[in-house]
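Explain this record to help learners:
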Amino acid sequence: MRNLLVAGLLLLAPKLALAHAILLQSQPADQATVEPGERTLTLRYNSRIDHQLSRLTLQGTNAQKTLTLDKDAAADALTAKAELTPGTYVVHWQVLATDGHMTRGDVRFTVK
């Protein structure tokens, strides 16, 4: 019985590993400080992303805006341009991996 349980878990493990898009890298990086001006925000994940059903929202000191995603971004990334003025920002991301699982998170950074 124990061997059957172990075998079942081993078969399930690859599916669990691919179940959610995990943020691997962001530009700006979380907690980074960047210069003001027009910037390209890039978030790269461990799996392919459904660009049609994913979104980036930029929250600044006085406003929140859903960003227009770059249609030519890599299959595993979301990119968008934003005009950044001095202040504190949070990029709220919501992505749908092509396997159908939705994940969310935040990247915080400062513009000085």
